[in-house]
Design a protein that fits this description.
It contains two helices and six strands; from the N terminus they run ββββααββ. The chain has about 150 residues and is an alpha+beta fold. It has a domain of about 100 residues: 2-Layer Sandwich (GTP Cyclohydrolase I, domain 2), CATH 3.30.1130.10. The strands form two sheets. The chain has a four-stranded antiparallel beta sheet with strand order 2-3-5-6, with helices on one face. Strand 5 and strand 6 form a beta hairpin.
Length: about 150
């Protein structure tokens, strides 16, 4: 195995979902590029549980980051997000918690996450978190998620 990779226990192995986000392991890989660039991770079918009603909540998540030394391994990221399926928390805590955990594990130069939540009680809630300042010259496209317009 190349020195680019730390020990990857999840990739290539059958894995169940972690019981909660705290138990999830976010594996990382050495950044394979010397140039500055942006990574986008999109989860259009993210789910969590309302901590009050126990009902499912749904969001379209978009994570953008400029790597420094590490990138997140995508299967580990998928399992991490899946660990929220039975996790009860508010939209704000889920969205910012995902961003903060990524910052802790991969220490990017810059990161932003947009959590575009589907309506609860008739009100869609969009939550945004950013870490650091975007590096000068980094191309950052729009997240491409239109505001919620209902059926109209």
């Amino acid at each position: 195995m190349s020195d680019r990779y730390e020990k990857l226990d999840q990739l290539g192995q059958q894995q169940g979902l972690p019981q909660n986000p705290d138990e999830a392991i976010l594996e990382r890989v050495k950044n394979p590029c010397d140039e500055q660039y942006m990574v986008r991770l999109v989860a259009p079918e993210f789910t969590s549980i309302c901590p009050v009603t126990g009902q499912p909540d749904f969001a379209h998540l978009v994570v953008d980051y400029c790597p420094d030394e590490w990138i997140v391994e995508s299967k580990a990221f998928k399992l991490f997000l899946g660990s929220y399926r039975n996790h009860g928390d508010f939209h704000e805590a889920c969205t910012t918690g995902i961003g903060q955990r990524l910052v802790k594990e991969i220490a990017p130069k810059w990161l932003r996450i947009g959590g575009y939540w589907y309506p609860r009680g008739g009100i869609p809630i969009d939550v945004f978190y950013q870490f650091g300042k975007a590096p000068e010259g980094l191309w950052i496209p729009d997240q491409g998620v239109p505001p919620y317009r209902g059926r109209g």
